[in-house]
Amino acid sequence: MMKKMIAYILSSIFYIFYGSCLIFFHGLQWLGFNLGGYKGHKTAVDLMNCTLANLLYILGTHIKFISKYPIPKNVPLIFVSNHQSMHDISPLSCFLRKYHPKFVSKIELGKGIPSVSYNLRHGGSVLINRNDPRQSLTAIKEFGTYIEQNNYSAVIFPEALMPSLLPRLLWRPVFVLLSVRVEEQLVLVLLVRSSNKLE
Fold first, then answer.
1. Which of 40, 86, 88, 157: CA 20 to 30 A from 109?
2. Cα–Cα distances in Å, from 13 out to 6, 56, 67, 169, 193?
3. What is the largest CA-CA distance in the chain?
4. Helix axis angle, 133-150 relative to 171-181, nearest 10°?
5. CA-CA distance, 61 to 50, in Å (whole number)?
6. What's the whole-model pTM score?
């Protein structure tokens, strides 16, 4: 019983800070983007993601990023990862910030969420309509070119992008198209563990 009460109190504190940060960094992103362009916006986004990741310590969470091999810099990368909860994004973005991570995201997230939607629209990520394969493939193609030209990284959560009505096999040409478009890409697989226990 005492454990539950402490969990409720800590969760309340966490979400108050979490929501406040999203609102604060929405304004900071706007300033960064309009006054400093890409660099200014990225600085605000990196600060936001690392702040949100560190807020998880309020809940007693331990975050570890383990890589057994060095990740090359200044080359286009594709990170393919499982996706367990909304709390995956900030730690990944924080730990991978030097690789300029850009997300392949569903179009619904492009509006309505402070900070998150603004970043997806202005930070170089791609928004795809999961029910419109033609739009998705075209957007992925343009996204691949963008990643390759700037030596950024693409982060993909395959299962999060697949609606129940769309055959899973359709995801294969999307991934292949991105891989082919980014000719010198290195594909890395990430494994997220236990973040779903936070919800």
1. 40
2. 11, 11, 32, 42, 24
3. 56
4. 30
5. 14
6. 0.82
Determine the Cα angle at 141 with ends 136 and 147, to 5°.
120
Give pLDDT, residue 4.
78
Q: 170-198 burial, b if ≥16 CB within 10 A, otherwise e?
A: ebeebbebbeebbeebeebebebeebeee
The full length of the chain comes to: 199
- pLDDT tens string 1-32: 777 788 788 888 889 999 999 999 999 999 99
Q: What is the pLDDT of residue 180?
A: 47
At 24, is the secondary structure helix, strand, or coil? helix
CB 158 within 8 A of CB 191: no
**Contact status, residue 23 vs residue 116, Cβ threshold 8 Å:** no
Q: Are strands 77-81 and 101-106 parallel, antiparallel or unpaired?
A: unpaired
Query: Coil, helix or strand for 79?
Result: strand
What sections of 56-160 are H helices per DSSP? Answer: 89-95, 116-122, 133-150
